[in-house]
Design a protein that fits this description.
heterodimer, A: 284 residues, 70% helix, disordered N terminus, B: 336 residues, alpha/beta, Rossmann fold, Alpha-Beta Plaits, 2 domains, 13 helices, 14 strands
């Protein structure tokens, strides 16, 4: 060390931008995980709720007439993909809540008076945290689904599941963080989450196929981003992977696996660009 | 060169004007007291210094750096302890300090050594590894002070550091601040406690209505005010008539500047006199009129008098006056 004794402020020493960025991001992420470990109820509820969906909904429609589902799939297997996506989606939708509480309690100010290399670390820490939680929850559901006899995707399928979930989680986390900085308080944020959550689930192909829906709902479901995440995962469970195959027949035309992933990529990039000005306004 | 240089700061929250053409200059190495009633603009000024808020117009220099153009360098130089203690209840004090150290990019070994040192100095070792949610107000304040000092800032900015604290915690914080200044850290603290500023500050400014109305050392300000104070009681409890008779009698004495009947304190008389010699003349006049003297006390002007002189009202009156005018919603939105 070239410092002139122990009283020299370490912070004035020249350190690389990357080292500083990772130090602050890691510290902020560690805080979120410490909160989770000491207050695990959100995680437990986050895993239990989809499991209940899977078991109850699976049982409710276990006797659905043959031919309802494409390819004579069992309802439980059909539902699995929907519940996985819905879990990741609602988890990511809540990503803004901790940030909102930090704003309200003034903890964010503690971060803002610190000489952060980039205030994006605050956003990045949330994204890392939510992504990890979502993947963990999804894995728990996939294991349960496998135990219930609803199958398990192959190695390539698993990769597709992860990529799809990551894209969806990034997009929705961006949306939620944007809301956390745009809305006046947590009451409003919770209201938005509440109003968004279930309608998006029902207006997607999570619980029933497009062919089963009245045409207006079919249109909604065919435009719903959740559908674009559910169908690739469903395909991953169906067997040999072919991204160029048609995954669902939307009223506006057939949609392939590539098309689904492209839509998710565009959505993610679009949302990050959309929230940038919001974050900049509050964070710089 | 001054450590802090604020020039012509203006800031409004909606239609409420928080700062108007505020100027302030603070030299390195001193403990500067920023005195004013609630709502005078103290917190707004400090938030601008801490780069949490931008002024509508004006210039902010800290340690020779323009805070508006180079906020990151200013954040490094400055430790800010806000009025509302923002802690994470789930973390322990030590974890919170580690987080803080990482946000200031301290090397882990230096960070942990510095934490250990501060824990020791602030007497926090018994509870630093307990969760912050269990802390009392005084413990939280001390923790907050420790986090503000962690990265060894040149300047520590404290917003009302002892408000609502027990006497023991207040004494501990005063003690620490004095030691810091003697070791070379500059401290700027806002307060609406006169005695706090009087006890701690080398230099001070009085802020009222968003602008600095008086500046100097506490002694300077008192000296500038001039005159001694005399408190006189002719009986332990006089009635109003008697006090007013004595008031008229003493008004005529040479060297008496002002006589006020203090209704709140048993109709005692508060006098402002030119110098010591006047006291003898007062005693003589009272003896001639055969008026007894239960108590007569002479004192130098207090900061309270300075404040009264500068603003034309007491600190308490000023607080009552602004209490109804604040746009709390607007301020809150700004603070988020």
């Amino acid at each position: 060390m070239t410092s002139s004794g122990c009283s020299a402020p370490i912070s004035e020493q020249e350190r690389g931008a990357f080292a500083e960025l990772s130090q602050e991001t890691l510290a902020l992420t560690r805080r979120l995980f410490l909160q989770l470990i000491r207050r695990p109820s959100t995680l437990i509820a986050g895993v239990l709720q989809p499991l209940i969906w899977l078991i109850l909904f699976g049982a409710l429609f276990a006797n659905a007439p043959d031919g309802l589902l494409p390819g004579g799939m069992s309802y439980g297997r059909f539902l699995g993909a929907g519940v996985i996506v819905f879990t990741a989606f609602s988890g990511a939708l809540n990503a803004g809540l901790p940030v909102m509480f930090d704003r309200e309690f003034g903890f964010l100010n503690r971060l803002l008076v610190a000489p952060l290399r980039s205030r994006s670390s605050i956003v990045l820490a949330s994204v890392i945290y939510i992504t990890a939680i979502s993947l963990l929850q999804s894995l728990a559901i996939m294991l349960t689904a496998a135990l219930l006899g609803y199958g398990w995707p192959g190695a390539a399928g698993l990769l597709l599941v992860m990529v799809t979930l990551l894209l969806l989680v990034f997009a929705v986390t961006a949306l939620s963080l944007g809301l956390a900085f745009a809305l006046p308080g947590h009451i409003e944020l919770i209201a938005v989450i509440f109003v968004t959550n279930l309608p998006l689930l029902f207006a997607s192909t999570a619980l029933a196929p497009l062919s089963f829906m009245p045409s207006w709902l079919g249109w909604l479901a065919a435009l719903n981003p959740l559908t674009f995440a559910i169908e690739p995962i469903r395909a991953a469970y169906r067997g040999p992977l072919d991204l160029s195959a048609v995954l669902f027949e939307a009223p506006y035309g057939d949609v392939s696996g590539f098309a689904c992933l492209s839509v998710l990529v565009v959505l993610t990039i679009g949302l990050f660009l959309l929230i940038r000005p919001l974050l900049n306004r509050k964070l710089s | 060169m001054a450590l802090i240089e604020l020039r012509q700061l203006n800031k409004s929250y909606g239609s409420v004007i928080a700062l108007r053409d505020l100027n302030l200059s603070v030299q390195e190495g001193c403990l500067f007291g920023f005195l004013g009633p609630n709502g005078a603009g103290k917190t707004t000024t400090l938030r601008i210094l801490a780069t949490l808020l931008s002024p509508d117009s004006g210039d902010v220099q800290v340690a020779g750096l323009n805070a508006l153009e180079n906020p990151r360098a200013v954040r490094r130089a400055l430790g800010y302890v806000a009025q509302e203690v923002a802690i994470d209840k789930i973390l322990t004090g030590r974890e919170l300090m580690r987080l803080q150290g990482d946000l200031y990019h301290m090397l882990p070994r230096d960070r942990d050594a510095r934490i250990a040192d501060l824990v020791e100095r602030l007497g926090m070792s018994d509870w630093i590894d307990r969760r912050c949610g269990t802390y009392s107000g005084g413990m939280r304040r001390r923790l907050d002070l420790a986090t503000g000092l962690l990265h060894r800032p040149r300047l520590l900015v404290l917003d009302e550091p002892t408000v609502g604290l027990d006497i023991e915690s207040r004494a501990a914080i005063w003690d620490l601040l004095r030691r810091l200044v003697s070791q070379g850290t500059s401290v700027l603290l806002s307060s609406h406690y006169l005695e706090e500023v009087e006890a701690l500050a080398d230099r001070m400014a009085i802020i009222d209505g968003g602008t600095v109305i008086a500046e100097g050392s506490p002694d300077d300000l008192k000296r500038r005010l001039g005159g001694d104070r005399v408190t006189l009681r002719v009986r332990e409890f006089s009635d109003e008539d008697e006090s007013q008779r004595v008031q008229q009698l003493l008004n005529g004495v040479e060297g008496v500047i002002q006589v006020v009947v203090n209704r709140a304190q048993g109709h005692s008389l508060n006098l402002v006199i030119e110098n010591d010699a006047v006291v003898d003349r007062l005693r003589g006049r009272l003896a001639d009129a055969e008026i007894p003297v239960f108590a007569l006390a002479q004192s130098r002007p207090s900061l309270d008098d300075v404040y009264l002189q500068a603003t034309g009202r007491t600190l308490m009156d000023a607080e009552l006056a602004v209490a109804g005018q604040r746009d709390v919603k607007q301020e809150r939105r700004q603070s988020m």
